[in-house]
Specification:
single chain; alpha/beta; 2 domains; 10 helices; 9 strands
Length: 272
C-alpha cells in the first residue's frame, strides 16, 4: 500500500514529522509530479515473472525487469482503472498516457510511472505493482574442506583461495584456517588443568598435615583410655588397628565431601 501526499493528508499529518507540506508545495510547481486526490492505493511488490504468470501485458509504457528489482528502482506499474482514476483526479479527464514518465507524490517517495496494464477484468485493474525488493540480509556462503594431514593446511588454503578468486568476480573471498584457534584453545585448557592439578595437590598436602595433627592430638587425649584398654588385655596391635579404622573412616568421609568441587571449578573455568 502507498499513501499519497495531498491537501487532506498534509492537514491530517500537520503535527507529525512526515507532514509533507514542503513536498506538496514543490510538486505544485513541477508538472512532472502527479498529486492524487485519494489518500492511498493498494498493490503488491512482484517480480517481473509475475506478469507473465498472470498473462498481464502493458497497454501503455512497459513493465519492469529484473534489474529494477536488483537496483531497488522507484518505479510503478498501474492497473487500468487505477490509472484512469489518477488521471481524472490530476489531469481532469486527460488520457492515461499522460501518466507515463510522471512521478507520483507519496510518503514512500517519488514513484515513476513506467507502464499501465491492459484491462484484465479482475482486481488487478484496481491496484499497482512495484518491483520486489528482497529486504532480508543473507549471510555470505561458507564452504568447509578437510585435509588428510595438518601440514597441508596452509598449502590447501592457498590453492582454494586462488581457485575461487580465478572463477569469481567478487572480492572478499576468505580462506580461514581454524588450526591456530584450536591450538590456543588447547593451550588454555592445558594451563587450566595444570592449575587445577597444582591446587588439588596443595589442598591434599595441607589436608594431610591437618589430619595428622588432629589425629596426633586425639591420640594424646586418648592416652588414658588406651592405657585402660591395654590393662584389660587388649594388645598394642589391636589398639593400632582401632585407631587406623577410625582414621580411614574419617578420611574417606572428608574426601567424598570435597571431591565434587575440583570438577565444578574446572567446568566454570572452561566456560569462561
Amino acid at each position: 500500500m502507498i499513501h499519497f501526499i495531498n491537501d487532506a493528508s498534509v492537514r491530517r499529518e500537520a503535527s507529525t514529522p512526515r507532514c509533507g507540506k514542503s513536498d506538496l508545495a514543490n510538486a505544485r510547481n513541477d508538472s512532472s509530479i502527479i498529486i492524487a486526490e485519494q489518500e492511498e492505493a493498494k498493490g503488491y511488490e512482484v517480480t517481473p515473472q509475475f506478469f507473465a504468470a498472470r498473462t498481464l501485458e502493458a497497454m501503455l509504457g512497459s513493465l519492469f525487469f529484473d534489474k529494477a528489482c536488483e537496483e531497488g528502482a522507484q518505479v510503478i506499474v498501474l492497473g487500468k482503472n487505477l490509472a484512469e482514476e489518477l488521471t481524472r483526479q490530476s489531469r481532469n479527464g486527460a488520457p492515461p498516457s499522460l501518466l507515463i514518465g510522471k512521478k507520483l507524490l507519496t510518503y514512500e517517495g517519488y514513484l515513476t510511472v513506467i507502464g499501465i496494464l491492459k484491462e484484465a477484468g479482475n482486481r488487478y485493474d484496481e491496484i499497482f505493482f512495484l518491483p520486489w525488493q528482497d529486504k532480508k540480509v543473507l549471510p555470505p556462503p561458507q564452504l568447509r574442506f578437510a585435509v588428510a594431514s595438518p601440514h597441508q593446511i596452509e598449502e590447501a588454503c592457498a590453492q582454494l583461495s586462488a581457485w575461487f578468486s580465478s572463477r569469481s568476480a567478487t572480492e572478499g573471498i576468505v580462506c580461514f584456517d581454524p588450526r591456530h584457534a584450536v591450538e590456543q584453545l588447547v593451550k588454555r585448557n592445558r594451563g587450566i588443568n595444570l592449575l587445577i592439578l597444582f591446587l588439588s595437590f596443595s589442598g591434599l598436602f595441607m589436608s594431610a598435615v591437618n589430619v595428622g595433627n588432629i589425629f596426633m592430638g586425639r591420640g594424646m587425649r586418648m592416652r588414658e583410655k588406651l592405657g585402660i584398654l591395654m590393662a584389660l588385655g587388649v594388645s598394642q596391635k589391636e589398639v593400632l588397628r582401632l585407631l587406623s579404622a577410625e582414621t580411614l573412616v574419617i578420611t574417606l568421609s572428608g574426601a567424598s565431601l570435597v571431591s565434587p568441587f575440583p570438577s565444578i571449578f574446572r567446568d566454570r573455568c572452561c566456560k569462561r
